[in-house]
Amino acid sequence: MENNYFDSNLVFTDFEADNYEEVLSKLSNILLKKGIVKEEYPEKIVEREHNYPTGLEVGEINVAVPHSDHIYVNEGKVAVAILKKPVMFNKMDDPSEEIPVSIVFMLVVAEPKAHLELLQKVFGAIQSQELLKQMLVIKDHQELTNLIKNNVIGG
């Protein structure tokens, strides 16, 4: 996977939101302002999350991996939000159940093949509760971006 999906300016600590819609809206609007996604993206990603939840119960620390159709994307990137407090997301494998999510990996992919590769990388990384714990406790932006770049996205 090419490293161009990683952008340290799209890694956020102490990200504040009250619900998953707010997380997705705030993140996707940042992407929109940077020209990474098309105007429809913020609405479409919330809609997709509602219809196809991405909350993953992976242990003590849960994650969500929201994404939308590539037709709403200008440039492939990954946005990462470490939430100040967990937010409820519906589970991917049981949409009727909600789980508290602490880390959100928003996959912004312009081509389907890259989407699968990126999903595999993220899914591989989130199996490590130790890595997720490190991501939650690190407050230094540079240290956090290095950790993500080297252990999740690939550096």
TrEMBL record:
Gene3D superfamilies linked: Mannitol-specific EII, Chain A
Lineage: superkingdom: Bacteria
InterPro entries in the record: PTrfase/Anion_transptr, PTS_EIIA_type-2_dom, PTS_SugarTrans_NitroReg
Residue ranges of domain PTS EIIA type-2 in the record: 4-151
Protein name: PTS EIIA type-2 domain-containing protein
Organism for this UniProt entry: Helcococcus kunzii ATCC 51366
